[in-house]
Each structure stands twice: as structure tokens, then as C-alpha cells.
Specification:
single chain, 212 residues, Ferritin, 2 domains, elongated
Length: 212
């Protein structure tokens, strides 16, 4: 009987000691995990990042929305113009320029559309509405697009470059407005890239026109 009570007391003591160790480990673990999470992407950091993600994604303003909504149809028209070059252009330089324009602007259209969707904004519809901005920001009118479609050879090269210079100048102006008024860092970065690349292409096309 005495042995039995002694065994029970020992068992209780061992269990209590084990519980104390577990409590201490848990407390220590919380402290360690907190500091580790802060530096190595642990659970606490993930929760914090998730909480701050919407705020980070939401750091945009009306200028960013206007930039995306205006640049999407603008880029679409540039790609539409570039698609005419392989069959109609005579100059190898014009064909390469058109290919470069399409290669750069197609992915930007997808990026801009993704931003608008993430902001809860409507992405501009494709088709005729793309010409709704004609006369503004260098957009071609339906008549100008028809003229380009009906041209070929050297006449196409000249018309394409003259129209694309005007088109690029409009894009640069839109990008400069975004740089000045926008708040969304990725959009401002894209605007800077558009200014740099399209200004260089304007210079290239002016040189090609001068050489003709």
C-alpha cells in the first residue's frame, strides 16, 4: 500500500515536471519563433505580410488608373499597326522595329490589365473602342489606319514611321503624366521604361525617314 502511494506520488511529480518543461519550452519557443520569423519568413512574418499586402497593392491613385486605362488601347493600336509590317513593309529596319514594338507592348498590355483587375477596375474592351481615343495621345483615326492597311512597300514604310512617331509621342506624354502624378511604383517604373524605349525608337525612325 505504502509502495503504491509512493509510486503514485513519483508519477505525479514526474508528470508535473514534464508539464513545466513543456510550458517553458513553449514560452521560449514563442520568443525564438518570433525573432526567427521576423528575419526568415516564419509564420508571424507571413501573417504580417498577408495583412499588409492589400494595403501595398492598394497604393495607387486615379492617375495610375487613368494611365492603365489609356495605355491599354494605345498599346493595342500600336500592336495592330506593327502586325501590318511583315506583309507590307519593304525595309528590313521597319520590319524589325515593328517586331520590337509588338514584343515590348504585348506583355505590357497584360500587365496593365492585371493591375486594373486587381484594383477592381474595368479593363478596356478590345475592338472598336480601342479607336475611341483617336485624335488624343497620338492615336490614329480609323481613316489613318485604313490608309496604312492599304499601303505597301516604301509608301508603307514612310506612313508607318510617321504615324508611329506621332503614336509614340503620345505614349511618352502619357507616361510623363504618370511619372508626375501616379502613386503606384510598378506603374511609374513602366512609365519610365516607355519614355526611354519609345524616345529611342522615335529617334531611330526620324533618322530612317531622313535617310530616305
Amino acid at each position: 500500500m505504502i509502495r503504491k502511494r509512493s509510486l503514485v506520488r513519483r508519477t505525479v511529480a514526474v508528470a508535473a515536471a514534464g508539464a513545466a518543461v513543456l510550458v517553458l519550452a513553449a514560452c521560449g519557443g514563442d520568443g525564438d519563433d518570433g525573432s526567427s520569423a521576423a528575419g526568415h519568413g516564419g509564420h508571424n512574418t507571413t501573417a504580417s505580410s498577408s495583412a499588409s499586402a492589400p494595403a501595398s497593392q492598394g497604393q495607387h491613385n486615379a492617375a495610375d488608373v487613368a494611365f492603365a486605362k489609356g495605355m491599354i488601347p494605345h498599346h493595342r493600336q500600336a500592336v495592330e499597326m506593327a502586325d501590318l509590317a511583315p506583309e507590307r513593309a519593304q525595309s528590313a529596319e521597319v520590319k524589325k522595329l515593328a517586331a520590337d514594338i509588338k514584343k515590348a507592348q504585348d506583355p505590357e498590355i497584360r500587365t496593365l490589365s492585371g493591375w486594373l483587375a486587381s484594383w477592381g477596375e474595368k479593363v478596356p474592351a478590345e475592338g472598336a473602342t480601342d479607336h475611341s481615343l483617336h485624335g488624343m495621345d497620338g492615336m490614329m483615326t480609323a481613316e489613318e489606319m485604313a490608309e496604312l492597311e492599304n499601303a505597301s512597300g516604301k509608301a508603307f514604310d514612310t506612313a508607318f514611321m510617321k504615324m508611329m512617331i506621332k503614336h509614340h509621342e503620345g505614349a511618352v506624354e502619357m507616361a510623363e503624366t504618370e511619372q508626375a502624378d501616379g502613386a503606384y511604383a510598378p506603374a511609374k517604373k513602366m512609365a519610365a521604361e516607355i519614355i526611354a524605349s519609345q524616345s529611342a525608337e522615335i529617334e531611330q525612325m526620324n533618322k530612317l525617314l531622313g535617310d530616305n
